[in-house]
Amino acid sequence: MRIDIEGMSAGYGGSEILKGIDLHLEGPGLTCIIGPNGVGKSTLVKCMNKLLEPTAGKVSVNGRDVKEMTRKEISEAMSYVPVQSEDVFSMPVFDTVLVGRANRSRWKTDPKDVVKVKKVLEVLGISELSDRPFDELSAGQHQTVAIARGLVQETEILILDEPTSNLDIRHQVFITSLMHEIAVSKGVMVIMISHNLNIASMFADQMVLMAEPGIVKNVGTAEEVVTRENISEVYGVDCEVVMHKGRPAILLENSIFRRVRKSPFHPSSLVYTSKRFSHGRPQGASGNADKVLGGRIPLLRRPGGARPHRQQELPFREGVPQRGPSGQDSGPGEQQLRQDLVRIRHHGHRLHGRRLLEGHRPAQRGVLPEQGPSRGPRHLPLRALQARLGGRVRVFQDLS
């Protein structure tokens, strides 16, 4: 059994998804195709079984061009389990799985077909669903029934498009391990798309890593494909790859959202400060404020904070207590400021540039007096913010 793909390109509606794919798969075993969303994994397997015709290149199955093969010949050579079943009829589960034997019995029920269906349902642990209508099952049960229908075809090549997408982690491990067991014991080539990299690494004999823009980045064993460099580059996350029982396992770092933080709208970029705080941390005897505000009060600044800033101190509102020489507040102004800061942060306000953008939130008890029902976002000038906080606000402007 062999699948050869040479210089293949494919897409939908004039949009090219795959670009010049070269891939050669041979022999029995479990091959897991991994990669981010939108890189063409499903498009690739659809081209393998003629569900989608390539715009360029060639796909061969056991030495024959799939363009020259009939649907019956393809169904006898390979079975395909889609990512989501499109069947919505009320046929019993047993009959739904029995349809998978049509490539061998030619729509005539044979006693051997009945025995085969019962055996597959038992192996998958869904024998109790035999008489249940298919349209009454859950999404995970739908997926398991679709896998059963693919298994009863008994072909040399089994292609599964995200067979574990609607399953809990226990059933994900069970299905993936079962596919590996079938591939080894029955001598079947199983090609499976998976988004759970750790489970795929546990059982895959071969892995195919796809990346943007619709290319195959790496093909090999789990140890060769699942590396820190490959995962960080393709998925855009910081991680560590460790070996566990001879197989690679991915451990994500805390900076998984490092790309998101580049956005000027991320909470770590748009924040507040008072006269008492600087450089993102409370100063002096402000441990209580540190606890109240979660231990982090960043300044209004560009992400990274690499560029210098010019400090502009606004005049304080008359009557607000000022700090004494020791840095202690001479009245309750600081306590009120902390409460206002917590309220603003809790109710989703964001300071962008020199304006405060209020979120869509109805009036609630304990919210700032000016806040009320809003039909849309409204901007408040910085002096309004200053008035709310008793004038104890500093603004940092980017010199760039």
For the structure shown, list the relevant keywords.
single chain; 400 residues; alpha+beta; Rossmann fold; 2 domains; 6-stranded mixed sheet; 4-stranded antiparallel sheet; 13 helices
Short description:
The chain is of the alpha+beta class and 400 residues long.
Structural class: alpha+beta
Shape: globular
End-to-end separation in angstroms reads 62 Å
CATH H-tier superfamily of the largest domain: P-loop containing nucleotide triphosphate hydrolases
Mean pLDDT, as a whole number? 74
Q: Going across the major beta sheet, what is the strand order?
A: 6-7-8-3-9-10
Top-tier CATH class of the largest domain: Alpha Beta
Instruction: Kindly state the number of beta strands.
Output: 19
Biggest sheet descriptor: 6 strands, mixed
CATH names the topology of the largest domain as: Rossmann fold
Low-pLDDT residue intervals, each spanning 5 or more residues: 256-330, 345-379, 395-400
What does this molecule look like?
With 400 residues, the protein is α+β, with helices and mostly antiparallel strands. The protein folds into 2 domains: 2-257, P-loop containing nucleotide triphosphate hydrolases (Rossmann fold, 3-Layer(aba) Sandwich), CATH 3.40.50; 261-398, no CATH class. Helices cover 29% and strands 24% of the residues. The chain contains 13 helices and 19 strands. It has a 6-stranded mixed beta sheet, sandwiched between helices. A 4-stranded antiparallel beta sheet has the order 2-1-4-5, with helices on one face. A 3-stranded antiparallel beta sheet has the order 16-17-18. A hairpin with a 2-residue loop joins strand 1 (2-12) and strand 2. The termini are far apart. Residues 256-330, 345-379 and 395-400 have low confidence and may be disordered.
